[in-house]
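Q: What structure does this chain adopt?
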Amino acid sequence: MTTGIESKPIAPVRLRTVMAGALLAMVLAALDQNIVNTALPRIAGDLGGLAHLSWVVTAFMLTGTTTTPLYGKLSDLYGRRALFFVAILVFLAGSLLCGAAQSMGQLIGFRALQGLGAGGLLTLAQAAVGDVVSPRDRPRYQGLFTGTFALSSVAGPLLGGLITSALSWRWVFYVNLPVGLLALVMIALGLRPQPVSKVVRQIDYVGALLLAGVTASILMWLAWGGAEFDWVSWQSAGLLALTTVLFMLFLWRERAAPEPLIRLQLFRNQIYARGVAVSGMMSFAMLGSTVFLPLYFQLVLGMDPAVAGAMMLPQVAGMLLTSIVGGQVVARLGRNRPFLLAGIGLEAAALVSLAVFSYLAASPTIFLISMGILGLGMGMGMPNLTVAVQNAVAHRELGAATGAMTFIRSLGGAVGVAASGAVMSQRLSSIAAGSSIDLRTLAERGMQASVQLTEAQHAAISDAYRAALTGCFILSGAVMAVAFFLVLGLEEKTLRSQIEDAGTG
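A:
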């Protein structure tokens, strides 16, 4: 077995090179989750296929989410370096083909290919840090990842809009090529190749296919429910039944497989099990609550897109501050549970305050305060949770453990967006009947469409979105409250000072 683990302290220059490559990989994955969104109307205009436009996003999310555990497991067996090469090259090939797509069907297929590479970028970037940095020092580096992810997530829609306006939507994909090649060079220089074990290891491809089926069926249910069919219908029941059957088969396979994709015994470790669950809840709350905020700022508060995007900056600033500074403090103390509790508590409080402020139609300044508090909490919670999970397992299973956590985090985000979308759609449907307002146009064009509304129509839209956002924030706040109590009962384990010490479970 080989993982790329360093048997002695890594030289500072090589450590910085590895970190630079991993951070660039994080940028690629984080940007492409949302950089395409602002280009979707232009893509539909060029390629047609408006009815299938959502699959440009769903296909990427589906393959990216499904492959995260497989990348983690394979990297434990064959080394992080080799799998990094595969992930980046597949991602870049998908990006190149997406930019050259001549039909909506081609673009959806190439986005799925791109997602196959993206699935490894987030997992391997975080796992690679575990190969060269001890758990005691890891918080300061994980803080950099959190800050990078925050900047990329907020910059994605803005960058996508600028590139689409200045060049074309195709350059939204082509821009990945130089960044990806630079990341490839950094990883090649920083991570040393390790001798591959001569022992033949069996890969649980059957488990991977079953997990892909589970993910595909649940995401299709979330994507199509309420749109292609009613939530209460035979199609909905069929997809839920298929999800349940495939999930039970996956559990059976993982118990029987000689080399399981996800070793289920890991979940007997309470720190790991609770940490993975909380990571999914945090992603649910973060994406489920904030993905619709720019639309709220435009349609309810009357902001233009640029100002609406700038409203997210306090969240980014808060994440950068607490992830970097907090990481330094945790590394010195060797304890991260207090920071986890404080971070998740701040997130829950911020989401509740957003619910109150949206209900009261508060001024933008008040929203800035809540966004800042939300960012402060996320900056303390996200990196320390990753460190706690990695610290709780043996290094030989670091990749698989990180991959499983990344999978649950991605799935939690998808479910959060779908749940908030369902709340939003249900409330908005109440004003659609007997009205000339085109809600789909409003969602895609924001203020450009809303300025054509009468005062009464705009008031109706504002009331609907205000009520819908309040429901989204209440839902996310409740999920974060549950996450807080899970962390409250979490056993604290002192962060190890050595990379190779065995974890529990």
